[in-house]
Design brief:
Layout lengths: L1 E4 L12 E3 L2 H8 L5 E3 L2 H33 L2 E6 L6 E7 H12 L13 E4 L1 E9 L3 E11 L2
Parallel strand pairs: 4-8
Antiparallel strand pairs: 1-2, 1-3, 5-6, 7-8
Length: 149
């Protein structure tokens, strides 16, 4: 029996999916508890169409994020900060600081959660930071930390 799930059901599927279950499980458990309805021809077509639309939207978002990644990778971001004579910083540079720098310099609304690793820079130098944008788009950006003169 094919049913369309109205709610997420553990070990069966998520809301909106059409799944095949045994007749007894469908009629005696899922349908009476309003967890699913029997999937008919029209509902199956409707769900397939929705899945296609979701796939297209996801692909468009991925393409948009790939363009965004290229924009982010085009330049080396520079930040000047107070430091000691040995190259150690007074304080540290965090993901939040870098996100603000990128937003100010490129007008891209960069989220600090896009960094793939924890960012805690404490020395002057050139750094390559791994980022992971939504939809699985991964890449690197370069950050140059310079002493404030």
């Amino acid at each position: 029996m094919k049913v369309m799930l109205l709610k997420d059901v553990a070990k069966v599927g998520k809301k909106g999916e059409i799944v095949k279950v045994s007749d007894g499980y469908g009629r005696n458990y899922l349908i009476p508890r309003k967890l699913a309805v029997e999937a008919k021809e029209g509902e199956i077509k409707h769900v397939k169409k929705i899945q296609e639309i979701k796939k297209e939207v996801k692909q468009k978002r991925k393409e948009k994020n790939e363009k965004l990644l290229k924009q982010l990778q085009e330049r080396v971001y520079k930040i000047k900060i107070k430091s000691g004579s040995n190259g150690k910083l007074f304080g540290s540079i965090t993901a939040n600081d870098i996100a603000k720098l990128i937003k100010e310099s490129t007008n891209i609304d960069f989220d600090k959660r896009w960094f793939a690793e924890k960012v805690n820079i404490k020395e002057i130098g050139l750094y390559t930071l791994k980022i992971k944008l939504p939809e699985g788009v991964k890449g690197d950006i370069k950050l140059k930390v310079e002493p404030l003169e």
